[in-house]
Amino acid sequence: AVVSTQSTGEYQKFIQTRQQFDAQLNENELVLGEFGRLKDSAEVFKLVGPLLVKQEIPVAVSTVKKRINFIKGELERCDKNITGSEEKQARSREALAKIQQQYQAKMHPAGGAPQS
User: Fold this and answer.
1) How far apart are CA 51 and CA 16, in angstroms?
2) What does the alpha-carbon distance between residue 59 and residue 42 come to, in Å, rounded to a whole number?
3) What is the rounded average pLDDT of the residues 11-24?
4) Residues 63-79: what's their mean pLDDT?
5) Is 13 left (phi over 0), alpha (psi -120 to 50) or beta?
6) What are 81-108's pLDDT values in tens digits?
7) What single DSSP character describes residue 63?
8) Is the CB of residue 22 less than 8 Å from the CB of residue 10?
9) CA 97 – CA 94 distance, rounded (Å)
């Protein structure tokens, strides 16, 4: 039961991390779409600490595209972790079921009284 609880906590952590990366991906894809709507004369600013610093549009687009690629890689990693955690939980459930069957067989043998 302890292994199952740890696996469940680990699984929840992986799901939460994946949701955060998914939200970041959606946000960055939205920003990339907004860049496509800008006029040539538009100015783009980047927040650096408390300051807004002017940034060239191609540089900003490149930065967002790199960020999107990074996030997609992290999402793949999260998916692998989630799959691994699901498999670990399945193995734990199978092991627990086997132990329960062995216990039941010992407690209620066919045609006999319970053993102690």
Assistant:
1) 31
2) 14
3) 96
4) 97
5) alpha
6) 999 999 988 888 899 899 999 988 888 8
7) H
8) no
9) 5
pLDDT digits (tens, 9 = 90+) for 26-45: 999 999 999 999 998 899 99
Q: Which two tokens stand for residue 96?
A: 């627990």
List CB contacts of 78: < 8 A, sequence separation 6 or more.
14, 17, 18, 21
Which residues face 46 on adjacent strands?
53
Query: CA distances (Å), 113 to each of 29, 98, 99, 105, 116, in order?
Result: 67, 21, 20, 11, 10
The amino acid occupying position 96 is: L
- Residues near 4 by beta carbon (within 8 Å), at least 6 away in sequence: 89, 92, 93, 96
> What's the pLDDT score for residue 23?
98
